[in-house]
Design a protein that fits this description.
This protein has 335 residues and is α+β, with helices and mostly antiparallel strands. 24% of the residues lie in helices and 41% in strands. The chain contains 4 helices and 20 strands. The longest helix is centred in the N-terminal third of the chain and has 36 residues.
Length: 335
């Protein structure tokens, strides 16, 4: 047994904060499609792609012969119901007067009251239908955001359900990052972190809100993050809202995965050989080559996830020389 080498140290356990970094990109959760509720012709699109719009703002209007005919039918139905209601009101007034003069029966009065109530209900129904048709003519923004594309221009006929415009809601953007291996399994919903955009100096505080249930083709798992402190409910936004990022923006996200107890060793004590990391552990029988799994590096020290226990003594000086000691006796030069 060889004499133990000099420069050994006793390793100890220490807590380290796990920072999980990955490339990230701002992506839409889902685009907002504004569809035609009924068939017609697009007669007005006052906005352009890229414009910021408010919730409820008119983006386009439907017209044409089909819409005009439908409007005419609804308006005629309202006029007819209003006339019937006025007539039944007058008949009810007459029936009450005749009943007070004992010229008619209570049954006739009740019939007149029933007819008046039915006419009133019918008027309310056709009036509501007319208002609905008028509202359906106007295609309004369901949420504040930016217009991504216009799928149907002025003069184009569209069927019911056809997409006319596509919006990107300002509160429907999030950050997507792909994590792999142990990093992916360490991430939990609710963890906080920072997103550092490539073109912006100041970082954005983010929070994990979703973890994909399946792996990507490259083996990564997609993690979804939103700006920390952002309210879940939609708020009133200005015509050009201030948002922490824009669609397509790229950068690096770093998630704080909490503290973990690991064995800390001098970085010089680790030896890389054939894609595997080793540490030389001094035992009662000599020097043992121990395969280890390195973790985070802090300065001149490295935290080891697996392979070492607190209290063990490792070689910290000339570890590479000690690891390859006697290699000449086993090395055969090529012919």
């Amino acid at each position: 047994m060889r004499r133990p080498p000099e420069g050994t140290v006793v390793v100890k356990a220490a807590s380290v904060t796990q920072d999980l970094s990955a490339f990230a990109q701002v992506r839409p959760i889902a685009p907002v499609r504004v569809r035609a509720a009924q068939a017609g012709t697009v007669v007005a699109t006052p906005i352009l792609p890229g414009a910021f719009v408010r919730a409820g703002e008119v983006l386009a209007r439907l017209g044409g012969a089909q819409i005009d005919a439908l409007m005419a039918r609804k308006e005629a139905a309202v006029d007819a119901a209003r006339a019937r209601f006025a007539t039944d009101q007058q008949l009810l007034t007459i029936a009450r007067q005749r009943f007070e003069l004992n010229l008619d029966t209570r049954q006739s009065l009740l019939v007149a009251q029933s007819d008046e109530a039915a006419a009133k209900a019918d008027l309310a129904a056709v009036t509501a239908a007319l208002r609905a048709v008028r509202r359906l003519r106007d295609l309004r923004a369901p949420a504040a955001g930016r217009v991504l594309s216009i799928e149907a221009g002025d003069g184009e006929r569209v069927s019911a359900g056809r997409t006319v415009l596509v919006l990107q809601s300002t509160d429907r953007l999030w950050l997507q990052a792909s994590y792999y291996g142990a990093d992916a399994t360490a991430i939990r919903i609710g963890m906080n972190g920072e997103f550092q955009p490539s073109a912006v100096v100041s970082p954005v505080r983010v929070r994990v809100v979703a973890i994909a249930a399946s792996l990507e083709p490259d083996g990564g798992e997609v993690v979804g993050l939103v700006e920390s402190g952002r309210a879940a409910s939609r708020v009133h936004l200005s015509a050009r809202p201030t948002v922490p990022w824009i669609d397509g923006e790229r950068g690096t996200v770093t998630i704080d995965a909490g503290k973990r107890s690991m064995v800390v060793v001098p970085t010089d004590a680790l030896v890389l050989d054939r894609t595997h990391w080793f540490a030389l552990v001094q035992t009662s029988t000599g020097i043992d080559r121990r395969e280890v799994v390195p973790g985070p590096v802090r300065g001149w020290q490295t935290y080891v996830e697996q392979g070492l226990k607190p209290g063990e003594r490792v070689v910290a000086q000339n570890a590479y020389l000690e690891f390859h000691h006697g290699i000449a006796a086993h090395y055969t030069p090529p012919d």
